[in-house]
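Comment thread on ticket #2218

A.B. wrote:
> Attaching the input chain for the structure job we discussed in standup.
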Amino acid sequence: MLGFEQAWTTMTDRYTTWQIAGPGSLILHEMLYLLICLPGFVFQFIPYMQKYKIQKIPEGFDSQWRCFKLLMFNHFFIQAPLIFAIHIYTMVFDIGYDYQSMPTWYSLLLQLYACLILEDTWHYFLHRALHHKSVYKHVHKVHHNFQAPFGMVAECVHPVETVVLGVGFFIGPLLFCTHLILLWTWVGVRLLEVIDVHSGYNLKWNPLHLLPFYGGAEYHDFHHMNFHGNYAPTFTWWDRICGTHVPYQEHKKNKLANKQN
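C.D. wrote:
> Ran it. Output below, let me know if you need it in another format.
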């Protein structure tokens, strides 16, 4: 931890809180997003990895380029102002920046898991609402233009959806954040999860499957393929409680029956 402590202390000594929370957070978000997307992008060129691909539909350059352009618009014209507002939030709520006031690693893990649960709940119900026929074709259809998703698709959505579903990201930090490290690690965890479920590859050895009730890529891929059911982004319990997992269960039964015949 000495290397991390030194790096963090150097950062807080060298840069202002505005530079860290504003430009620093934006740079962190962009770097993490592209790095986490990279393996899935490379997989399309590796024949061996195609056995893990859920829908046997090539990504295609045109589709990826269209997604990338919308993604960059969302990141720099919609998300960037919200990210820069993090500095105001940290000042108003007296959020710590110094290394000494960081939470312990185990309390940080608990907070991150709580953030996942809260965001998953918000996302489930608002995501279902976006599927209502009165708003679907105007907003959420943009995301569903990618029927066979790939990692970059995770935040390739209508600007309105970026804001509406993005509110869920801030619920956990608003409730119990005391240090910038929670915001930054929460960015990493959330991006890792949302890009994974959109990756289009069902990797059995994916460590995220160790999370209890984690849905994963195969679970969310069905939502893109079927358009209905499996609305939760991370966990499966809301779909089970509300019965929106039924189409997926029937799909799995039919797939198993066809394999046996």
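A.B. wrote:
> Thanks. Noting for the ticket: Residues 107 and 147 are 38 Å apart (CA to CA).
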